[in-house]
User: Fold this.
Amino acid sequence: MSDVDFDTVLEKYEPAIGLEVHVELNTATKMFCGCANEFGSEPNTNTCPVCLGLPGSLPSINGRAVESAIRLGLALNCDIAQWCRMARKNYFYPDMTKNFQTSQYDEPIAFDGWVELDVDGETYRVEIERAHMEEDAGKSVHAGTSGRIHDASYSLMDYNRAGVPLIEIVTRPITGAGEKAPAVARAYVAHLRELVKALDISDARMEQGSLRCDANVSIAPLGAAGLGTRTETKNVNSLRSVERAVRYEIVRQAEVLESGQPVVQETRHFHESTGTTSSGRPKSDADDYRYFAEPDLLPIAPSREWVEELRATLPEPPAQRRARLQTDWGFSDIDFLGIVSAGALGLVEETVAAGATPATARKWWVSELSRRANESGVELDELAITPAQVAAVQALVDQGIVNDKLARQVIDGVLAGEGEPAEVVERRGLVVVSDTGALSAAVDEAIAANPGVADKIRDGKVQAAGALIGQVMKAMKGQADAAKVRELILEKLAG
Amino acid sequence: MLITKSAAELGRLIAAREASSVEVTTAFLDRIDELNPTLNAFLHVDREGALAAARAIDERIAAGEQMGPLAGVPIGVKDNFCTVDMPTTCGSRMLEGWVPPYDSTVVRRLREAGLVIVGKTNMDEFAMGSSTETSAFGPSRNPWDTDRIPGGSGGGSSAAVAAHLVPLALGSDTGGSIRQPAAVTGTVGIKPTYGGVSRYGVVAMASSLDQPGPCARTVTDAALLHEVIAGHDDMDATSLDLDHSGLVDAAATDDLTGLRVGIVDEFRGEGYDEGVMARFDEAVRRLEALGAEVVTISCPAFTYALPAYYLIQPAELSSNLARFDGMRYGLRAGDDGTRSAEEVMSLSREAGFGKEAKRRIIIGTYALSAGYADQYYGQAQKVRTLIIEDFRAAFERCDVLVSPTTPTTAFRIGERVADPMAMYMADLCTIPSNLAGNASASFPIGLSDDGLPVGLQVIAPTMEDTRLYRVGGALERDLEAEWGGSLLDRAPEAKGE
Assistant:
């Protein structure tokens, strides 16, 4: 990718992005049977004749899944179908127990919505084409050296995931974002993730696959009518990957076009380690799934009363929530934007709710914890520390039990799985020493070792005390109460 | 002789401890041993299991437990109903030896009501056929003439009931698979309103058309069995919540005064045997004599029912049968360690499905394909709507519709095997009820000139299954008074090989 760079590409081409996001619902049971919807169980333990697609079995729809789909549809400003049906998508694959997926085709439960995203202070509107219900497939485990199908000696199937309820949300092509296209794609997925969590309909854990994103990318010469040939990149399993995959595809497609070749319509796989995509299977618009309305299920006709009842359960719309929180917390636009850009809004909110002041909550998440998330390449909310624990750390500071520097070590301990902040303080012995006896000896030593500095202080140059405080802190391994040390130094050297 | 008694009578004898379920069951098992080698009505007989179930019922009755009217009565179950204790093959190599890990809802209800399941009856492969000739395990034979077909797909059940191998059997009707076998064997077959009897655990052919129902020798027996198996089931989303308690009572009515009977004008003329039409016309006159008012009603869309059915049914089954791929159960072919999953799936389907199954899978796949779906599947669905509309209009003018159940009597084995269209014509009159979901039945009304049974089809509006029993019961008593007993008494004595 050395010969073409992203900015140069955007001088000639306009990218169009289409995102398909699959959200696994957190319903107690599966979409069409009573099996537990649980991640991480022993393989093939959450199964029954229905999700195994045994001959004679029939589906019964999970009402809670329909409710979740309607609530998400409403939160995405969609229309909710008065009447719709499930449909069969027919194709053969060992992870599909019936060799068809029960999905929706031309009658999605929710359609024609939109969301607004803030990206670097600018607002982008993304149009939602549809959100529809479907079931997940089982999981193939390929036994072999690489864990991939081509060199596997055999494959095993785990059908625990077969029949887990999914909602697929499809955007209309996002155009006009130019060089912001990758960031808009990321912001969209981040927004969806925040939304489904706020709705409490999914765990939305990208690393566990409960929120999965396929990114359609195409580019067309600036000013051209219509869209270019698209590719569909799969396996995009983190927010950072969404941005990288879109950016990579824009540049790759430009290189292909610049070399005089056409872009091939195909699925591509994203590789986390290299940030690149590779060719998957060719995909044409003529893929024939022989859809037809699922005859084993009744049409879904949500009453308008029910839809309105569900609308009343929606969480506050994101823009309204941001405005309210900024006012409540009294942050400047810049400070508040810092929280939003860091993806820390919900975390700060929960930390404040757990007792911290907005300023301290912001400080921990936006500077200290964001840096650590970056260093370890994870999302902020994937760090092994909860807002309640952050609030507890701040409380320790406020109580004078630790200082700022020690507080960082407490956070280290929590992140390392050493327990709650108070336990870390205890185990690591991090308590600030403010006991006069212990400090007094250290202060005496420092005075004796630095007679010149001591003389200056005696002469009234109080600011020189800083050097001695530093000595004491060093001797006490940072665990001294700095204010107390200063007090002692001045007392001992007072005229 | 115990085996010629009705299920109702056997139930009474067992409840009164005048006969034990073990005696009754043994009598039928012996009859099966004698005749099944000739008739091939049963694919699997579970003598030990049946006798154990019979003993358990006898003990409960001896202990004073009040059980239902069919407790202790033997029954045969079509081989597409899942049974945990017997193979469920659907007449296909694909499922040869497959024992399901669960009971179908209907089978569970049979067991709860104390019926004794003696075995699984033969059928056309995955219920595709009108003669049992597509069964991978050979055709069943008609007790009236063993060179002839006993109908299909449920020919094993109809042959078993007609030859007194069991007093009752279960069937499933997608385009006539209960009614056509009943007509050609002189027995009673009921296709309940779609949704009246749970489909859960019945291996699907065409989901929007399949409906389980009873096969019996008498109308009252069919009603008794219907009341046992009907009722809402949470496991079948298309199941209806209806009151089925009035069926047995309806079968006891003798008077049809005020009942408006409509003759379907489209179901007569060319292709209909003279003998069949003669019995049909007599039956209509008989209904009139019993007090019914008869009118002729035209249902023009019925002319298109057969072509529409042969698009919708293959389309649905092409999807329903996709799961048979050798990956999880059933036949697996060609898995020699070098082939991909896709190749093994393909080889398994090649080896496991018979010719008719493949024909319909190909037709259905084509009918749903992009570019053709609107023209075939879509058009067929429109015809279906027109047929529903014809029924609605017809039932404004009458309470039930009647027609011959089949245009001809039982044809010879082998006669139509090479001509699918001729085979499909056997269901010409029965298909509209499946497309519209109506309750529908076939009752024996005599013998044609060739000495073979003829059936009268009665069609009631959806959820009006009681009307079938009212007409069937009155007609049966009137005919049997004239015949001096059951039509089956006139069948040649079936002999073992």
